[in-house]
Amino acid sequence: MQAVDRILEYKKVNGLPVIDAAREDQVIANGAAAIKDPARRDCFVRLQKEMISISRAYQQRNGGFPGNVRIGSGVLAEASGVFDLHRKVLVVTDEGVPEAYPRAVLDQCLDGALLVLPQGEAAKNPGNVELILAELLKRGFTRSDAVVAVGGGVVCDMAGFAAAVYLRGIVCYNVPTTLLSQVDSSVGGKTAVNFGGVKNSVGAFHQPRGVLVDTDALSTLSPRLFSEGLAEVIKMAATSDAALFSTLETADDLRPLLPDIVSAALRIKLSVVASDPHDHDLRAVLNFGHTIGHAIEAASGEFYHGEAVSIGMLYMAEGSAKERIEKLLKKYNLPTEDPFTVEELMKFVVSDKKRRGDVTRIVRVSEIGSYRFEEVDDAALRRIIEKRKI
Ligand SMILES: NC(=O)c1ccc[n+]([C@@H]2O[C@H](COP(=O)([O-])OP(=O)(O)OC[C@H]3O[C@@H](n4cnc5c(N)ncnc54)[C@H](O)[C@@H]3O)[C@@H](O)[C@H]2O)c1
Hints:
By secondary structure, the protein is α/β, with parallel strands linked by helices. It has 16 helices and ten strands.
């Protein structure tokens, strides 16, 4: 079934539908044309149809996601069906994550242990990675054992990094429990800690072997953290999924829609990641709102990341798209204004680590569901900021 997963991935990356009957018929006809004996030809056609129908059913199963990604309400109870937990497993979480979530995974492990770390961005440091590594060593973990991260982006980033470097790499599974981590950080393979006062300055690419996204876990998030995660969903919808954007605009109650909303956003992230596994240029679409957003985050220390990105998107959106994004952000209690001067923002924009020389690549949205890149120099960037400040 790995080959079928690859076909599914190819279809996603290239925007092809899972079911394309005309193409399937064409593939069978091409193969059959090369067989002269009518009996063998009939047999070939029957076999091909059978194989395609099995492959099709497999690809449609699990909402079109690969077998190692499961999303839904209550799927925490299915961890052992998605992850191989028949080995030593260290479940890593933090003290802010309700205990029931790591416990649900631990209960499904044959030989599991729990490590609870301090919570918050300040905890995302090498000292806590050392704690994970020491635990793995103390418990005699080998390369065939595994780590399961249960928590937000901080836990997933740290546990993933420890798994990447322990014995040069052991299996890591992610169970993201914040909205931001469910739609963003749990997939893509970026792991890191903050070091020397610089965010994510030490890390590694290490793909999680499986991801379990239980949208029920979002029920315990504070409204502010939930809205912050929603900012990332709005960002992805604005650039890549007009239907998802409309759903967010018209929904009265998001709760019953969460499995579909998270699936749609994760699908966008997975397809971007698949086209750019090592974060060269193509993942840059995910930076919509981040150029000014990072500056606002750095300048204030008050705004959460998603809140700063919300404001940042409005600098980069244009026309009717800007109006729709602004209205949607307000609907979900996200900020749309920042208190900083052009000078204050420029100071942080020019120190952005993603710049090449004095050129910044920005993502612009003038129509919901599509985007374009622009390479701008500092003078052009200043004009963009000034325009919103007037
Ligand atoms: N690796 C990537 O690709 C990637 C992408 C985006 C962000 N990140 C990283 O993610 C981190 C931010 O992640 P985050 O926003 O999830 O923050 P977080 O991990 O700090 O979680 C926020 C808070 O929510 C608590 N929490 C987690 N799940 C909960 C739940 N279900 N109910 C109640 N409380 C819960 C946590 O204990 C924590 O206090 C940053 O460090 C960022 O750099 C990584």
